[in-house]
Design a protein that fits this description.
The structure holds 2 protein chains of 2 kinds.
Chain A lengths: L2 E8 L7 E8 L4 E5 L6 H9 L6 E6 L2 E2 L10 E4 L11 H11 L4 H15 L14 H14 L4 E5 L7 H17 L6 E6 L2 H7 L2 E6 L2 E7 H6 L4 H6 L6 E7 L3 E4 L2 E4 L11 E6 L4 E18 L2 E8 L2 E7 L10 E6 L5 E3 L5 E3 L8
Parallel strand pairs in A: 3-8, 3-9, 6-7, 7-8
Antiparallel strand pairs in A: 1-2, 1-4, 4-5, 9-10, 11-12, 11-14, 12-13, 14-19, 15-16, 15-18, 16-17, 19-20
Helix pairs in contact in A: 2-3, 2-4, 3-4
Chain B lengths: L1 H30 L3 H5 L15 H7 L10 H31 L9 H13 L2 H14 L6 H26 L2 H9 L4 H9 L4 H17 L2 H5 L8 H7 L7 H28 L8
Helix pairs in contact in B: 1-13, 3-13, 4-7, 4-10, 5-7, 7-10, 8-9, 10-13, 12-13
Classes of the chains: A alpha+beta, B mainly alpha.
């Protein structure tokens, strides 16, 4: 009864948009697809919706070959990152459109639409024109249309990306509520995003996509704690996880003429060269720390992002207060050695502070 | 600075208005003149300068037997040919444009852009190049000097305009809109007429307007492809000019000729300011 994709590839031009992607989505679950722009997220969702036909591979749903069923008979719902609504219809008509298409009774339509409007908080907006709504409201209409359909597969393609910061935060909170209340137990919800924070908050099963390839699958926590390779570590952290080329010997971790004491979880590690990973939030300003040069200081909300340089290494540190720095100023920082990741020279995870692989 | 700007602004607006409107007023005035008032001296204002007469207008509806020129039949011929050809061009052109905008065609080296260019190339060629083939074509199928023949030729002339405008228009309608319609249970035809078409009204109106204008003002093909059976308005108006130029009826017929275009322009202007896609789609 699941939505199963097997070895799906799609290559419309020189590059793979999807490359050997397989999945098994179970009903009643939330799946997030995490990947950067152009990683194939939208392509994957469109393939599930039926807007694209893969060159290779199969998709089946409820034991039927999905690829043979045209889009308009698949009963999926999709919300785009652009706010796509029918401009010639008002809010109410926009939401009834798919229901009328399915020839439901007027009573049923009214009930479903009212319910959807309530869920997304647009009661009272029925007769508004789409053009009169704000971006957030337009996206709510699109979501309401998808919910009212009661489709078995609900696809959300970066639904928050075009909203401003505050609205995004607000709608993200609401999404969690809507997903828990507004969806029936046999809906498969697939949510794509570039934002690791969204993935963690939605806390579903995660698929990490890059260049059309699945890099890692697993629960959000697992992806966060034990990214299987450097690429996943970069994609699943914002700012991306810092990478420092260095080595371990019997006494220390060494990189850029800095020596750190070996943390416990590295004790069993072979002595050789590694790519060490450390999150921006695990770097602190410290008078007794190591000297780095500031390349750029960005203030974002109540935090400051410091782009730092030393030798050939560039790292980002996340300081949890607003501070003014001058470019090319020197600062001293300290690394939390207990949160170091070690990736091999093949970029695969060797040891994580949360016990991944041989740590 | 701002005073000078205001002055210049109004100066040019006034200048342009006079430049555009004066010939019309001149024609209106002339249409009420008789031979004497036109040829004796320059006259402008009825009753003051000259004694107005309806002779110039009467000639237009009198039958030739009574010394008139009768532009009524050519007038309706022109309306029929222009409207029929425009309508068919818009319907076919819109369908073609939608296909060119949304689907990918491949035939040998031919791609979508080549097909679009093929349509437009019909307008790039000087009409004189097309005249002989059209003449032979129509005479072969026996439609020379007939309304139907003119409609066929006008479709060839007008459809490129419709395709050109509508391809551009559809390209600006996000394809996610059609995709959403498909996802919401429309088959491709329903997606087209239930979602894409209602949102394309401004484009359709612009395309329709251009078709009507270019169809209505065409003189060349109307002149070459008709003789005695069928006549279109532009040919008839020009034909008024014989050994002596009847300025009064020429002015009157010119005014009736532009009247439909003026009406179209007013209607279209209303619609264009009403319907737009902005804000609806990001």
């Amino acid at each position: 009864m699941n939505l199963i994709g097997e070895k799906i590839s799609y290559k419309p031009d020189e590059q793979f948009h999807l490359n050997d992607v397989s999945f098994n989505f179970k009903k009643g679950n939330l799946y997030t697809i995490l990947g950067r722009t152009l990683s194939g997220k939208t392509t994957l969702l469109k393939t599930i919706a039926g807007l694209l036909n893969p060159d290779q591979g199969s998709i089946s749903f409820e034991e039927k070959d999905f690829i043979k069923i045209p889009v308009w008979e698949r009963n999926v719902a999709m919300v785009y990152q652009q706010f796509i609504n029918y401009p010639h219809l008002n809010v109410y008509e926009n939401i009834t459109f798919p229901l009328e298409q399915r020839k439901l009774s007027p009573e049923q339509i009214k009930k479903d639409v009212d319910e959807a409007l309530k869920t997304v908080g647009l009661v009272g907006f029925e007769n508004r024109k789409i053009q009169e709504l704000s971006g957030g409201q337009q996206q709510r209409v699109a979501l309401a249309r998808s919910l009212a359909k009661k489709a078995k597969i609900l696809l959300l393609d970066e639904p928050l990306v075009n909203l401003d910061y505050k609205l995004r935060e607000q709608l993200r909170e609401e999404f969690k509520r809507i997903f828990s209340e507004g969806l029936s137990q046999d809906t498969i919800l697939i949510y794509s995003t570039t934002d690791p924070q969204e993935v963690m908050e939605l806390n579903g099963e995660v698929i990490v996509l890059d260049e059309g390839r699945v890099l890692q699958k697993g629960p959000a926590k697992e992806i966060f704690e034990n990214p299987s390779n450097l690429k996943v570590a970069e994609i699943s952290n914002d700012p991306p996880m810092n990478v420092l080329k260095g080595s371990k010997n019997s006494k220390n971790l060494n990189f850029e003429n800095i020596s750190l004491e070996i943390p416990n979880h590295f004790k069993n590690l072979e002595d050789k060269d590694y790519n060490f990973g450390i999150r921006a939030s695990e770097i602190k300003l410290d008078e007794n720390g190591e000297e780095f040069e500031i390349e750029l200081a960005e203030i974002s909300g109540s935090e400051t992002l410091l782009h730092l340089k030393r030798g050939n290494s560039k790292i980002i540190a996340l300081i949890e207060e607003v501070m003014n720095f001058k470019i090319h100023e020197k600062v001293k920082i300290n690394f939390n050695a207990n949160k170091f990741y070690a990736f091999g020279e093949d970029e695969k995870l060797v040891s994580s502070p949360y016990g991944g692989t041989n740590g | 600075m701002s005073k000078l700007y205001t002055f210049l602004k109004y100066f040019f607006i006034t200048f342009w208005t006079v430049f555009v409107v004066a010939p019309f007023l001149w024609a209106v005035s002339t249409s009420f003149k008789d031979f004497q008032s036109v040829n004796s001296k320059v006259t402008y204002i009825p009753w003051l300068d000259f004694e107005p007469t309806l002779e110039g207008w009467r000639v237009l509806i009198k039958s030739p037997a009574k010394g008139g020129v009768d532009i009524v039949e050519p007038y309706f011929n022109s309306i029929f040919v222009t409207c029929t050809a425009s309508l068919i061009s818009i319907v076919l052109g819109t369908l073609a444009a939608y296909a060119l905008s949304r689907f990918t065609f491949k035939a040998g080296f031919v791609r979508n852009n080549d097909i679009t260019f093929f349509f437009i190339s019909q307008r790039i060629m000087p009409p004189i190049v097309l005249s002989i083939p059209f003449f032979i074509f129509l005479s072969t199928i026996g439609l020379l000097d007939s309304l139907l023949g003119l409609v066929v030729v006008y479709i060839v002339l007008l459809m490129p305009i419709a395709v050109w405008i509508m391809v551009d228009f559809f390209n600006r309608v996000p394809k996610e809109l059609d995709e959403t319609a498909l996802i919401d249970g429309c088959n491709p035809y329903q997606a087209f007429y239930k979602v894409v078409l209602p949102n394309s009204i401004p484009g359709l109106i612009v395309a329709g307007m251009f078709c009507i204008i270019f169809g209505w003002i065409d003189f060349f093909f109307a002149f070459i492809l008709t003789f005695t059976e069928v006549q279109l308005l532009p040919v008839k108006v020009v034909a008024l000019n014989s050994s002596i130029t009847p300025w009064w009826s020429l002015s009157a017929s010119a005014l009736v000729s532009v009247a439909p275009l003026i009406i179209v322009a007013f209607i279209v202007e209303r619609y264009l300011s009403k319907g737009n896609l902005s804000g609806a789609l990001k």
